From TrEMBL:
Coiled coil: none annotated. Pfam families: Phosphodiest, SGSH_C. Residues 1-23 form the signal peptide. InterPro entries: Alkaline_phosphatase_core_sf, Phosphodiest/P_Trfase, SGSH_C, Sulfatase_CS. Residues 363-514 form the N-sulphoglucosamine sulphohydrolase C-terminal domain. It comes from the Bacteria. The keyword Signal applies. This is Sulfatase.
């Protein structure tokens, strides 16, 4: 048998090789420990951002007004095509997200209600379980934020230019454009806390693209030469629909204001309406940049003297140019945050969510605003990225809701959700493993009437194909076949050919209300 002798030089080489392997294993193990610990959660939230205005959704603005940075989240993760809200309006959506409960359970039904900050929320539970939590941007819940180590909020709706911020220690206006400032503050907070050794949960909540759609200094001219496609139902006559659709106050034709909404500020109309909270807040330099773009628009408008449908078309173009330009700023700023995470290796174990408080009408049915249970405002965009957990470039078509966020975030952090929460964790869906018993219907309830935009109270359910709505104070029903009629132009309630579907939907509606504990005098039949 041959004896093997190592030459000294060879042994040294092998020893070094061994040491290198051990060292790299140790490093890998450490990485794995970090990567498998509770993930950071970054919840990027905008206000009134229609899914139609995100290019990842491949809708009518994709080519003309792309959102490449928001799309990065979809490319590296999952796009949810059927994400909805329980009550399509700002404060109620936020309350549902925090509590994981429907409006009738968390007590916040309308923008006029005050959020009870004593109740259990997911940020409180994350914080109790070792997370550092922060909320920066629009809050709109009227009571002080609870459950956050740090918060800096816009008062009420907030302002686009030189906005005020309130924090637990300070209040005052900050010079700049709101979307940039919310991002600056968020990045500063991330940087200051990156070495604390704890996972973070940051709610980064933009004001944009909320009415009055004031674009920022970097995007004033962006879409001025673009003609955007109109939706086919821009001139909807609401035939077959009920009183609510006919009597709302949210049309581009009647409700959209030339001065406050479309910023046609002339010497005569200054100092009225929203002048002081928009143009009135700008400094000299901001006004000069603004006027350079808007003065020619005002002149063009005065010369054209448009009427009727032509005027509606012109207003629609102005609306889209402004609305989509505020979104471009959101998109640029999402890019800044994603870059920061990547540069700091934080993208590796962070669940990144992009969503909005509800959807919005971009001229569909002739409208802007939200509130109705029709698809454009009932749906909300939802994109999620979590490296190594969510497969890249995937699309989910299950019925999901803003009711599900609280339980999802608790689940990814390994924390048990309290029974009071009424949603379901999206974690299995995120890994492509939708449970057999996933929900087949979602419950909706809108309460803010009488109120701005005059949308009657209604509740209803939607399934994969059919939707049932009850305007209970009018006792009017609507039903839609989303497969045959995705734009909901044809109310099929009481159509004999849908008889059996209607009765099974009505039955399902009653059962779902019972399941969620809905007690409402006029809708409890
Ligand atoms: C303001 C807006 C409305 C909007 C509500 C609620 N008018 O009242 O158009 O529907 O907020 O919006 S404005 O002239 O003040 O802009 S929400 O997103 O906060 O629910
Ligand atoms: Ca909103």
């Amino acid at each position: 048998m041959r004896k093997v002798h190592f030459q000294p030089i060879k042994s040294l080489f092998l020893f070094l090789l061994f040491a290198l392997i051990v060292a790299s294993c140790t490093k890998k193990e450490t990485e794995e420990v970090t990567a498998s610990g509770p993930p950071n959660i970054l919840f990027i939230f905008s206000d009134d951002h229609a899914f139609q205005a995100i290019s990842a959704y491949e809708d009518r603005f994709s080519k003309l007004a792309p959102t490449p940075n928001i799309d990065r989240i979809a490319d590296r993760g999952m796009r949810f095509d059927r994400a909805y809200v329980t009550n399509s309006i700002c404060a109620p959506s936020r309350a549902t997200i925090l509590t994981g409960a429907h409006s009738h359970v968390n007590g916040l039904r309308t923008n006029g209600d005050i959020f009870d900050g004593e109740q259990i929320t997911f940020p409180k539970l994350l914080r109790e379980n070792g997370y550092t939590t922060a909320l920066i941007g629009k809050w709109h819940l009227r009571s002080k934020p609870t459950g956050f180590d740090h918060w800096e909020i816009l008062p009420g709706q907030g302002h686009y230019y030189n906005p005020d911020f309130i924090s637990d220690t300070d209040t005052g206006a900050v010079e700049g454009y709101v979307t940039d400032l919310i991002t600056d503050k968020s990045l500063a907070w991330l940087e200051a806390n990156k070495a604390d050794g704890k996972p973070f949960m940051l709610m980064l909540q933009h004001k944009a693209p909320h009415r009055e759609w004031e674009k920022g200094p970097d995007h004033l001219e962006l879409y001025e030469d673009v003609e955007f496609p109109e939706p086919f139902n821009l001139f909807d006559d609401y035939d077959t629909r009920g009183t609510a659709a006919k009597e709302q106050d949210m049309t581009i034709r009647e409700t959209m204001q030339l001065d406050s909404d479309l910023k046609l500020w002339t010497e005569e109309n200054r100092n009225k309406g929203s002048f002081n909270r928009t143009y009135g807040r700008m400094n000299e330099e901001q006004r000069a940049a603004w006027d350079a773009v808007y003065d020619p628009i005002i002149q063009e408008f005065q010369e054209k003297n448009l009427q009727g449908e032509e005027l509606v078309r012109w207003k629609y173009q102005r609306y889209m140019r402004d609305y989509l330009a505020t979104i471009r700023s959101v998109d640029d700023n999402v890019g800044r945050v994603l870059d920061y995470l990547e540069e700091n290796g934080l993208d590796e174990n962070t669940l990144i969510v992009y969503t909005s408080d509800q959807g919005f009408y971009l001229g569909e049915h002739g409208w802007f605003d939200k509130r109705f249970m029709y698809e454009e405002s009932f749906r909300t965009p939802l994109l999620m990225q979590w490296q190594g957990k969510i497969p890249e470039g995937t699309v989910n078509k299950d019925l999901v809701s803003n009711l599900d966020f609280a339980q999802t975030f608790l689940d990814v952090a390994g924390i048990e959700a309290p029974d009071r929460m009424q949603g379901r964790s999206l974690l299995p869906l995120m890994t492509g493993d939708t449970p057999e018993n996933w929900r087949d219907y979602l419950y909706y309830h809108y309460y803010e009437f009488p109120g701005v935009h005059s949308v009657n109270k209604h509740e209803g359910i939607t399934g994969e194909r059919f939707k049932l709505m009850h305007f209970y104070e009018l006792d009017e029903w609507e039903m839609y076949d989303l497969q045959e009629d995705p734009m909901e132009m044809n109310n099929i309630y009481n159509h004999p050919e849908y008889d059996s579907i209607q009765s099974s939907l009505t039955d399902r509606f009653k059962r779902l209300k019972r399941q969620y504990g809905v007690i409402h005098p006029k809708s409890d039949y």
